[in-house]
Design goal:
The chain is of the alpha+beta class. The chain contains 9 helices and 4 strands, in the order βαβαααααααββα. The protein has helices spanning about 15-30, 40-50, 60-75, 90-100, 110-120, 130-135, 145, 150-165, 190-195; strands at about 5-10, 35-40, 175, 180-185. A 4-stranded mixed beta sheet has the order 2-1-3-4. A hairpin with a 2-residue loop joins strand 3 and strand 4.
């Protein structure tokens, strides 16, 4: 079997949302696992020199919206460019995803639902009811929401963030095939080729 795809992301990243289903489909195409590693934006930016959106110069903020509109049109994903609940503390959502994964379940549909809650449905992923509904709508137990507060789940989240720093990630989504890093959903063609 080929190397798995290791996928580092922020739940609230529009770019990770744009690339998410395509990354999952590439993994299926090559019959390899995709291992999702939610991590904290602050950790990645601190290590990699990134700047939170609100602190970026206006020309960069403006061009970000141009690119988001282009990709939304290109991928036919009708995101809201100015969602009501962004930026947001994604800790609860990320840890719930990890709790599902830690139980050996596939969290892909849950991840996509939570991302869509931000970018398509104007829902607040800091609200436990939003996360609970995302779980149940994907056939997953709402107990995972309670498990999100367990110390071992928090440790995995911290471990993802530490791993991101050790692998010199500076933005998301970032994909690894073996030791080769691919930053950005616009590099997914190269991920596909690396597995071919």
């Amino acid at each position: 079997m080929s190397e798995p795809i290791i996928h580092y992301f922020f739940v609230q990243s529009p770019w990770a949302f744009f690339g998410f289903r395509r990354a999952v489909d590439i993994a299926k195409k090559h019959s390899v696992p995709i291992i999702h590693k939610p991590c904290r934006a602050a950790d990645v930016w601190e290590h990699g020199g990134g700047v939170p959106l609100a602190k970026r110069p206006k020309p960069r903020q403006d061009y970000r919206l141009v690119e988001m509109r282009r990709w939304a049109d290109h991928l036919n994903i009708p995101i809201n460019l100015h969602p009501a609940h962004f930026p947001v503390d994604e800790t609860l959502a990320a840890r719930t995803i990890i709790a599902v994964q830690d139980d050996g379940k596939d969290a892909a549909d849950l991840i996509e639902t939570l991302m869509g809650d931000i970018w398509l449905r104007e829902r607040d992923i800091t609200n436990p009811n939003t996360v609970r509904e995302a779980l149940t709508s994907n056939g997953l137990s709402s107990e995972y929401l309670e498990n999100a507060d367990l110390p071992e789940i928090a440790n995995i989240y911290d471990g993802n963030c530490q791993s991101a720093r050790e692998r010199n990630i500076f933005g998301v989504p970032t994909y690894f095939v073996g030791n080769e890093m691919f930053w950005g959903q616009d590099r997914l063609d190269f991920v596909d080729r690396a597995l071919g």
